User: Fold this.
Amino acid sequence: MAIVDHFTNKPRYFIKQLQVALQSPLPGIEAQKIMAPPQRQLYPSNGSTPRQSAVLMLLYPTQAGVTLLYTLRTTTLSHHRGEISFPGGGSEPGDCTLIDTALREAEEEVNLPTNKVTILGAITPLYIQHSQNLVHPFIGWIAKLPPLYPNAAEVAQILEIPVCKLLMPEAIGYYEWHRNGQLLRAPSYIIDGFIIWGATAMMTSEFLTIITRMKEQK
Assistant:
């Protein structure tokens, strides 16, 4: 049975295999670049000190198979307003580790009971020039997702996207916008009318590359 079949048939087996894969060398920035917007700055400038941040890429089982949780940000936030992201934010003095940061932010944004989350591993940190953050993505798993309640100040909607949908070739599209009179296009994932692009798409791309490698090794 192909590893992708375990999304729906044996999610716990898939999660165990993913946890092992996350301890192996990661595909890294090359996998992230697949979904990078044009002319994106991938590394901090010399001498700069970006804020250390973390996000939680939460996996959990649904009838559609292993599912990934995203949030639609409100239009009132100062950065990345109205965009799709993972729960997360900047490290604060009370955070002992960046994992603590990711879990705290998930609890604050969607009221996730983080004591029930198992951290499987991490993927490659990603620099975001616009907000001057170096984001550390952590992959988490929860065996049963309880009811979540979005923080209205930050989260307009919680999105549940099955991993199998993200892997479909037809999920790949483009997000278009204008800057200084120029039309720009960035690769994106388009799922049920929602557009995932930018840093979130880049992190998703590395995650999906890891899964594809798992499939090829079977």
